[in-house]
Amino acid sequence: MKVGILGAGQLARMIALAGYPLGLEFIFLDPSADACAHQLGEHLLGEYDDPELLAQLAERADVVTYEFENVPAPVAEFLASHTQVHPAPKALAVAQDRLVEKTFFNDIGIPTPQYAAVNSFEELQQVMTNMAYPAILKSRTQGYDGKGQSLLKSADDLVAAWDLLQGVPAIVEAFVPFDREVSIIAVRSVSGEIAFYPLAENSHRGGILRVSESRASDVMQSAAEAYVTRLLVALDYVGVLALELFEVNGELIANEFAPRVHNSGHWTIEGAETSQFENHLRAIVGLPLGLTDLVGQSAMVNFIGGLPDSEKLLALSHTHLHLYDKEPRKGRKVAHATVRAASAEQLAALVQPLIVLADEIDDS
User: Fold this and answer.
1) Does domain 2-85 have CATH number 3.40.50.20?
2) pLDDT at 30
3) 8 A C-beta contact, residue 84 and residue 64
4) Of the four listed, 42, 49, 66, 287, which is most buried by Cβ atoms within 10 Å?
5) Given this model, what pLDDT does residue 145 score?
6) Domain 114-174 in CATH: superfamily?
7) Could you give the CA distance from residue 16 to residue 20 in angstroms, rounded to a whole number?
8) Phi, psi dihedrals of residue 143, rounded to the nearest 5°
9) What is the CA radius of gyration of the chain?
10) Which residues contact 109 (CB under 8 A, 6 or more apart)?
11) What architecture is the 180-361 domain classified under in CATH?
């Protein structure tokens, strides 16, 4: 069976690496000639909306998926009219627009921070008369890894924040004084079978995920599973989905969801019976889902902007390095490492040297 993937970055690379043991083949559509997954399958080089390349992809792939949520909606809809596409275009349409996403969450009973649509500077001023500072102004679309957003600490920040967005449709959200950030990764098959991974506790800096640690028997697990189940069912979703949440005073508030495999689930490669990447493939091609149980305690550390010293890193016990074959660049994710331990205490000790190495080369 041949799987088509829109995008050929590191997520597509890890999907393909998980798929080869299952006997799957891959074809990628990506506009970058040096996209890091292109050596793992056939590479259709061109824009995502190129009619000729889309026709080729639709004809030759048995099923199409994607590695990022900013795939143009008409592209997914065209492909879905010619071949199987998982997740379905509806999930993309909801995830691509922060206002639509927040409204969808609320409609299915998932709480979110207070929010309001903003289409002009005058609207922003009016909204902030009813919303407390600090707050966050975000573009409704094309935002990831902290891009397209500004923290509003006072009314003095409004002009600069609005100018930064250059007039695009926006949303302003109340700042959440969270106790911690967590995410749950779930997978749903074509038959409706659902499996959940243990919660991950996440640390961000500059809007970019830095560290993600698995949490066995977390007190928030059942609440997170209930929310993500509502999301999966409402979207009639097939594949892996990640729901990012804030914990505030023992309650969960949704931040956003990603209709794809997710950075906070990279630890599953070594830390779970079946990785998120393999389970995504199992789901979209109609295979039984694999177990999501923990294998020990695991953590993942991102390397941003620069490459780690492989020899120094691999000298650390219980550590696994994943290089993406990407040129270092400011703010760019170029690698990650995972560490696995027998206990939470041992994990805390083992992950600290990785964090030190990451901070040494971080130029984000």
Assistant:
1) yes
2) 97
3) yes
4) 66
5) 57
6) ATP-grasp fold, A domain (3.30.1490.20)
7) 6
8) -110, 135
9) 20
10) 230
11) 2-Layer Sandwich (3.30)
Cα(11)–Cα(326) distance, rounded to whole angstroms? 12
The three-state DSSP-derived secondary structure of the chain is CEEEEECCCHHHHHHHHHHHHHCCEEEEEECCCCCCCHHHCEEEECCCCCHHHHHHHHHHCCEEEECCCCCCHHHHHHHHCCCEECCCHHHHHHHCCHHHHHHHHHHCCCCCCCEEEECCHHHHHHHCCCCCCCEEEEECCCCCCCCCEEEECCHHHHHHHHHHHCCCCEEEEECCCCCEEEEEEEEECCCCCEEECCCEEEEEECCEEEEEEECCCCCCHHHHHHHHHHHHHHCCCCEEEEEEEEEECCEEEEEEEECCCCHHHCCHHHHECCCHHHHHHHHHHCCCCCCCCECCEEEEEEEECCCCCHHHHHCCCCEEEEECCCCCCCCCEEEEEEEEECCHHHHHHHHHHHHHHHHHHCCC
Backbone angles phi, psi at 168, to 5 degrees: -75, 155
The per-residue pLDDT for 149 is 86
Q: Which residues of the chain have pLDDT under 50?
A: none
Q: Which two tokens stand for residue 144?
A: 């990831």
> In this predicted structure, what is the pLDDT of residue 70?
86
- Measured CA to CA, the distance from residue 236 to residue 125 in angstroms comes to 38
Q: Where in the chain is the domain with CATH 3.30.1490.20?
A: 114-174
Q: Locate 211 and state its tokens.
A: 């560290």
* pLDDT tens column, 14-25: 999 999 999 999
State the pTM of this model: 0.95
Distance of alpha carbon 333 from alpha carbon 205, whole angstroms: 13
Q: Going by C-beta distance under 8 Å and a sequence separation of 6 or more, which residues neighbour residue 34?
A: 327
Ranges for all domains in the chain classified under CATH 3.30.470.20: 180-361
What's the pLDDT score for residue 123? 93
- Cross-strand partners of 29: 6, 44
Tell me the CA distances in angstroms from 163 to 106, 121, 125, 141, 156, one per residue in order: 29, 9, 13, 16, 13
- Please name the residue that has the structure tokens 């990628």: 28
265 close to 281: Cβ distance less than 8 angstroms: no
